[in-house]
Amino acid sequence: MDVSGQLQLKWESNVIYWESKLTSRLARQAVLTPDGALQLLDTGFRPIWSMFGSDHNDSSIKFRFLRLDVDGNLRLYSWIESRKSWKSVWQAVDDQCKVFATCDHCGICVFSSSGSPTCKCPFKSSTASNSTCLAPYKPECDYGSTMVTYEHTFLYGLYPPNDSITQTSLQQCKSSCLKDPLCTAVTFTNDGTAECRMKKTQYFTGYSDPSLVSVSFVRICLDPVAVLPMDKRVTPLSSPPFYIKRSREFCFRCLFVAFSVTFIVLFVIQLGIGFCFYKRRRYFVSQKASLAYSGLNSNGLIVFSHSEIKDLTGNFEQQIGPKVFKGVLSNNQLVAIKQLQENIEERKFRCAVSVIGSIHHKNLLKLVGYCCESNYRLLVYEFAENGSVNKHIEDSNLAKKLRWSTRIEICLSVARAICYLHSECREFVSHGNLKWENVVLDEELQAKVSEIAACNGGVAERDVEDFGKMVVILLSGKKEDENLIEWAYNEWFNGKAERVADRRLEKGVNLEELERVLKIAFWCLQVDKWMKPSMEEVVKVLEGTLSVDPPPPPFVSRAPLTGKDVVESD
To answer: Looking at residue 218, what is its pLDDT?
Structure first.
């Protein structure tokens, strides 16, 4: 911990590659709590920053410890009694390759096919030993130098670790290295701001991954080439006068033919230009959005300007939902653009985008890019062919596509997505805005959850309650109102659960599944949060691997029993 109260990981005391990022009060000490939380406490011994292990609050875990491992990563370990072994339940740097100097001077960090980080040396140098990966360039190049491109690669200097950073274009970044006799490599990044990082040392390392949008250029000396042979001299022969005359006549005919062909070619070109001009502006602007290095951030998301969004959507011409518009990228990929409120704070918006862009699950709608320009806040998602689930519930014709098995599978898919956010991400993520308008269906009617309100400080209980409401709405096919849940519960309680099912279902209802799904939905809707199940338990019930008891009415608050209550009841 440094003097400012930040918990930091440093390389050789001067390079910070991870920190707790406190924004307010000064931390006095760091503690590891028995329930699996790493906390920073202020002078009043109140927690002001926390990180939680994946088994946080698991009462079966009796032993934990925190350790800075030899690979430079800080990890929290728990003792798993059933396995008789220690398990890592949290680590400071999620991507081991991004721990500074992971490979030291042995190359760059990449992930093997098994998913483990490994060090490889992509550079060739005649003076480098097998264990040392040095820059192949030396200032004494007899035949000049050139740059070798390494896409999806980020390099940084080690000895010394002080890259010079300038704001410039990709081509200028590459050229500046060739002009500097001491430059050995450059890395170009564009995370909203184009930056060129120049290295002037033979000792550098880095990491490579297909998701990275950075590109690196490593300087090498050119090898000598053989001298090209001189052109043979041709001695002109003198020709009789009649040859000269025929040559001139032939040239006049050639000139006439050339003029005619040129006129026809120009006419065809003008027709082509006229045809292309119609699409030129939209294509040009949309193409800019997909350039490899001009608009991608560190999560691989495309950063759009508002003018580019207007062109992709045809000036918001085709609306497919509430503040949702259809668009087309230059590669003909369909996208859906969600227009958010303009008063969203930029810091919170970028935080949410960063979180959403790093989350990947088959039941979460993929975020393609975003726009954060002036007061505009827009999200660009992959396009879901069949639109929102809410649209299918409200439209009688579309509702027929949602058979009973499809509806159960949709509920399960949403539950798995929320379970992933709550317990399988490195940090807890609350959706915070769960409703059927924010769940879409692809061409195979597979559900994908969108509109994650990350960085909103949400809690798991709200997502669980919202999910319970959604289940009742989808199974009944009715719009949400203040009496829907009470009506559905009373029907189930009186042994008439089949009356809750949507009457538009043509191929019947599995009553056993209906009973099980309604039960877990009513548990999700309990007023007391301590009675609500976790999303992991919800998934198991929907899968049929966990039984569920009959729920009490979800409208009455009940205080949890204490030791005193038990004694008095005896």
So the answer is: 92
